[in-house]
Amino acid sequence: MTWHDGWWAYAFIAIAGWLATDVWRWLGVIAGNKLRDDSEALNWVRAVATALVAAVIAKLILYPTGVLEQSPLWLRAGAVALGAAAFFLFGRKPAVGIASAIAALALGLWWLGF
Amino acid sequence: MKREEDGQSSLAWFGKGMRGIFSLPAFILMLSFVGFCSLTAQAGIPVEQAVFMVGMVWALPAKVILVSSMMSGAGLATAFLAVSLSSVRLMPMVAALIPELRGPRTPTWLLLFLSHFVAITAWVFAMEKVPQVPRERRVAFFAGFGITLVAANMLLVAVVYHFVADFPPIVAGCLFFLTPVYFLASIWHSARHPVVYIALLFGLVGGPLFYWLLPEFDILLAGLVGGTLAWFVERLWRRRKEVGA
């Protein structure tokens, strides 16, 4: 039986997809329910969660998929650096940082002939 | 003004959460789901199964791994393991969110149900917005946002799947880049604890470092090692400040 045979596909998605992700969410609820609002343990969990998300962000920038796979690393890193500079220089507004980074990337891609 | 807001019902806060669908993060996520449509269409996964996947799995990276497991003809156990490995990160994310979200009388079953709607976008959004919501209304607010976001993206996949078209390269590249840039700006902007800044920097360095050392476990290790180190450094600073003061 292969995965595209009717009900088996749904069972496959439910077990390998739903169960494999929601188990971790449930464990997170159980762990998080035990954490006090102002505890040192919550501070640690917060640090680990933030670092995890940051690692995902770094991978998206360094190892993108699709069109950006062919773009040079210096352009992507430069666009992020420029966005960060604009963010800190002009009142730490997210929209300013995001717009600057995207504009720099778009300009760079255009200049490189994408 | 403050009292007036506190007096609003849970339903009103649910509605306010729903309105989060008209926000930059929701918009960016929907664009990512346009990409998911073309991935599933190319993989030959029928539209009903793609929509089912959006509702059941929700986290986009987990879905991408699930689709590639299906394409490569992997068995159930292999696919389960691969998806599990990519989803361990949901545990600390949910654990960090729960103490912000729960009220004094929030039942655990409700939190278990709502945890399903946590993925990176909803997490970043909730961590940023929830502190401005009165505590006893936070669950309603998050439910409104989370459920609407999942439902909207199920609908989007059901419709867009039939019209998969490629964006011009510059547009596609910029759309992809919006995701990491938005997460960076939002996390930095919304951080209310000093440890978040340090953890963000350590995670950014740790991600590529562990990808190079142990690519199978890169995200997990970057989170555990980078996060623990960030926590340790911030604690040391805090202690020193306390001693100095």
What report would you give on this structure?
- The complex is a heterodimer of chains A (114) and B (245).
- With 114 residues, chain A is mainly alpha-helical.
- Chain A has a domain at 65-114.
- Chain A contains four helices and no strands.
- Chain A is flat and about 50 Å long.
- The model of chain A has no long low-confidence stretch (mean pLDDT 91).
- Chain B is mainly alpha-helical and 245 residues long.
- Chain B folds into two domains: 2-179, no CATH class; 193-245, no CATH class.
- Chain B is built from 13 helices and no strands.
- Chain B has helices at 2-6, 10-18, 24-43, 47-56, 60-71, 76-87, 90-101, 108-115, 120-129, 138-160, 169-190, 194-213, 218-244.
- In chain B, α3 crosses α11 and α7 (90-101) packs parallel to α9.
- The longest helix of chain B is centred in the C-terminal third of the chain and has 27 residues, at 218-244.
- Classes of the chains: A mainly alpha (114), B mainly alpha (245).
- Chains A and B meet through α1, α2, α3 and α4 of A and α4, α5, α6, α7 and α8 of B.
Helices and strands in order:
The complex is a heterodimer of chains A (114) and B (245).
Chain A (H helix, E strand, L loop, with lengths): L5 H28 L6 H23 L10 H17 L4 H18 L3
Chain B lengths: L1 H5 L3 H9 L5 H20 L3 H10 L3 H12 L4 H12 L2 H12 L6 H8 L4 H10 L8 H23 L8 H22 L3 H20 L4 H27 L1
Helix pairs in contact in B: 2-10, 3-5, 3-10, 3-11, 4-10, 5-6, 7-9, 9-11, 12-13
